[in-house]
Each structure stands twice: as C-alpha cells, then as structure tokens.
Amino acid sequence: MSEVVRNALEEMGYSLIDNGREYRARPLYRDSDNDHVLRIWKDSGKWVDFKENKSGSLEDLIKITLNLNSISEAKEWISTRSRYEEDSEFKRPKAVISQTKIFNKSLLLKLRNDHSYWESRNISKATVKPFQGGVATTGKMYNRYTFPIFNGRDDIIGFAGRDISPTLSDKRPKWKLIGNKKEWAYPFKLNYKELKSKKEVILVESIGDMLALRENGITNAVVSFGLSLSDKILFSLISINPSKIIIAFNNDDLKSSAGNVAAESVEKKLLQYFDKSQILIKLPEDNKDFGEMNISNPDEIKKWYKTI
User: Fold this and answer.
1) Which domains occur in the chain, in start order?
2) What is the pLDDT of residues 197-213, one digit of tens each?
C-alpha cells in the first residue's frame, strides 16, 4: 500500500518530505506556502490538513487535488495506474528519486543590468525588470539575456537564456535552458495570486510571448517552455481551478503547423482534468507570435485578447 500511496502522490505533483511513518507536503488543492501542513500516512494514504482541519482517505485527497466529481472517479484514477504498473509488458521502470538543484542567488550579481534587447522589441524596462534577469557575460549563458526561474520557496531552480547575438547561428539555439523545466511553473513568483483571483490562465510557448502580453496589460500568462504541458504546470492549474484556460501557442499554420498541432495535444491532456467549457484554443492571428505582434502593431494583441 505504501508504494501505491507514494506513486499516487508523486504523480499528482506533490513534493514529499519523508517523516518516518508519514509524508509531509504542501497542499496542492489550495494556496499555501507551508511544506509541512499536509500529513499523509504511508501505510494507508489517510491525511490531515492541519490548517484547514480537514482529513480523509487517499481517494478524498485525489478527488480534491485533481478536482474530480466523485470518489469513484478517484478510485478509477488509482486503479488505472495500478494496472499499468502491474502489467509486465508495459511496466514502467522505478522512479529515480532526485533532488531539485538549487542555484546560488549570487549568480544574479553576475548578470549585467542591460535590458536594451527587450527594449528593441518594444518591451519596456518597467515590464522586464521585475523578472530579475540580465545579460550573462561569461559561462554557458554567454551573450544571452538570462532569466532566473524561481520555485514557490523563492529558490532559483533554473535559468532561461535568450540569445542576443547580433547574428543568429544555426548552431546556437534561440533559447537555452539550464535546470529541469519539468519542475518549472513560470512566472508564478509574480502572477500566482493574480491567476488564483482572476481564474484565467493563458498558456504561451516562450518568455518572449509572455513579456509581449504583459507589456500590453495582459499579466495572466504561464510559459510552457515549448510545445508540451508538464505535469508541474498541469497540477498547478488544477490547484488554481481556473474558469478559463486559453492555449495560445504560436500560429504556425503556414509553416510547420507545430504550434497548432501541439495546442490540440495540450487540449486533450487538459480535458482529462477540466471541462471542455474551461478550455479555449486561441492562437495569435495571421501566423505570428505575440513578440512579432508587439513589434509590428501592439494593438493586434489587445484586439486578440478582446475576442476571448
């Protein structure tokens, strides 16, 4: 039973603190910054939320965490995964427990306070400065405008760097990521409370897209860092339980159609946990991304948002 409990909790996105016969964790079904307030017994899955004075079975916890309609759905969720584990033909390898790397905040002091690249793309210094980024002059992020990625405890768990070289090379990707992006929910450090209150989330591919929206007063974007939706973002969305999730990947209809296909794939994943009425695919128009729209005609972004 203890293996079932641990697997279920980790798949839902819980970061578990081993405390002998029990786990301690931060509750994902409500807003909290306390990593010890939720207590889950290993042998039974029974749990207690000390602050809310709530308790229940493992199925109860799954139900409220995944926003399911009934206990029977929670039981089905467990049984589906148990069958998958027991099937010898498709048996998954045991998860390797790894600790999230924490980067020293002194690294931020090595970033040059130069926001001119973003200003050249019509992103103001006032918009970009709160993200605590800057230009790296040495190391793996050399000549990249580098953004620190924070977790809920304000630790730096990664970096995302945009190439700002005068001439882009095929050998040098536009964006370079350091850290495990599967653990990132960005930029929750700045907009999590707003997402909770507004109950509306816009999913975009890159930090550049998010900044372009933010420059135009749209501050409820979450960055996927690519064309897929990580479980970290998925379960963060579940904890927010938004009324509307707008998938706004790049419109590549006249190119590779990658963003268009990926948007449909993300929609299918979201439909396992959210009602169809909560999800909307709304790509930027005219085969552009938000960064291009912000340079050529920012009013296009405002017009796009009004149509949601």
Assistant:
1) 2-86 (3.90.580.10), 105-182 (3.90.980.10), 188-306 (3.40.1360.10)
2) 999 999 999 999 999 99
Token pair of 137 as six digits: 């002059």
Question: 135 vs 8, 106, 157, CA distance in Å?
Answer: 41, 15, 18
pTM: 0.70
- Phi, psi angle pair for 7, to nearest 5°: -60, -45
AA identity, residue 152: G
Angle at 243 between CA 280 and CA 46, to 5 degrees: 120
Distance CA 194, CA 201 (A): 10
Rg (CA), the chain: 21
From edge to edge, which strands make up the β-sheet containing 17-19?
A: 17-19, 22-25, 38-41, 47-49, 54-56
- Tell whether the torsion through CA atoms of 12, 25, 17 and 98 is positive or negative: positive
Note the pLDDT of residue 12: 86
Q: Which of 144, 155, 299, 288 is nearest to 218 (CA)?
A: 299
Please give the Cα distance from 145 to 161 (Å, whole number). Answer: 5
Burial 143-177 (b: 16+ CB within 10 A, else e): ebbbbbbbbbeeebbbbbbbbbeeeeeeeeeeebe
At 11, the amino acid letter reads E
Structure tokens that stand for 128 in this block: 């970009």
